């Protein structure tokens, strides 16, 4: 991990990485040991801050205990289809960490869970916008330190994602969608 991070900084042509994400844990190495390696990278100036991904609350607490203020972000899947990380968001809020959700629009939907977005489509119709925009606006309203990583296939979808920030959903709409 240490050699890879240093090599990444070299390839990018920077002395220090602003944010170093650990996206996958090595099951062969104890989690605390992996966090110690990340701490070493920050202490050596290879990275300014650390983000961790695909973890539960216990691992967040371990990482926070070892990294302290160097840990700034947690990245997990979150969408109307995948709401499991809601407890993780609470842990992040308690510790002052950003929560970064990947696949915020549900990823690859199948007929089994497509119905989840029916209410989002209904609210979108009332706002004359896409259900994707409503979905992102709903997610942003869930947690004050939430950032989303929506995918986009064209410039229109990128613009639609940005417009979600300006979309105000009423309290009734938020409750209806929750």
TrEMBL record:
Domain of life the protein comes from: Bacteria
Any matching Pfam family: Aldo_ket_red
Keyword Iron applies: no
InterPro entries, per the entry: Aldo-Keto_reductase, NAD(P)_OxRdtase_dom_sf, NADP_OxRdtase_dom
Cellular compartments per GO CC: cytoplasm
Assigned keywords, A-Z: Oxidoreductase
Annotated CDD domains: AKR_AKR13B1 (cd19088)
Gene Ontology MF annotations: oxidoreductase activity
Claim: Repressor is one of the keywords in the record: no
EC number: 1.1.1.317
Domain NADP-dependent oxidoreductase, chain residue ranges per copy: 2-177
PANTHER family linked: AFLATOXIN B1 ALDEHYDE REDUCTASE (PTHR43625), ALDO-KETO REDUCTASE YAKC [NADP(+)] (PTHR43625:SF40)
Name of this chain's protein: Oxidoreductase, aldo/keto reductase family protein
Species assigned in the record: Bifidobacterium saguini DSM 23967
């Amino acid at each position: 991990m240490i050699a890879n991070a240093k090599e990444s900084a070299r390839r990018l042509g920077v002395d220090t990485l602003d944010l170093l994400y650990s996206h996958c844990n090595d099951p062969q190495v104890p989690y605390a040991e992996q966090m110690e390696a990340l701490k070493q990278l920050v202490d050596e100036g290879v990275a300014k801050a650390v983000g961790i991904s695909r973890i539960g609350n216990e691992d967040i607490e371990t990482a926070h205990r070892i990294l302290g203020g160097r840990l700034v972000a947690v990245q997990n899947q979150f969408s109307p289809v995948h709401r499991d990380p809601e407890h993780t968001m609470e842990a992040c809020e308690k510790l002052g960490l950003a929560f970064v959700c990947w696949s915020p629009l549900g990823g690859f939907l199948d007929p089994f869970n497509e119905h989840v977005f029916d209410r989002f489509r209904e609210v979108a119709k009332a706002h004359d916008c896409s259900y994707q925009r409503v979905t992102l606006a709903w997610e942003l309203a869930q947690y004050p330190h939430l950032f989303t990583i929506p995918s986009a296939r064209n410039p229109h979808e990128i613009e639609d994602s940005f417009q979600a920030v300006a979309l105000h959903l009423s309290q009734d709409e938020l409750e209806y969608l929750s």
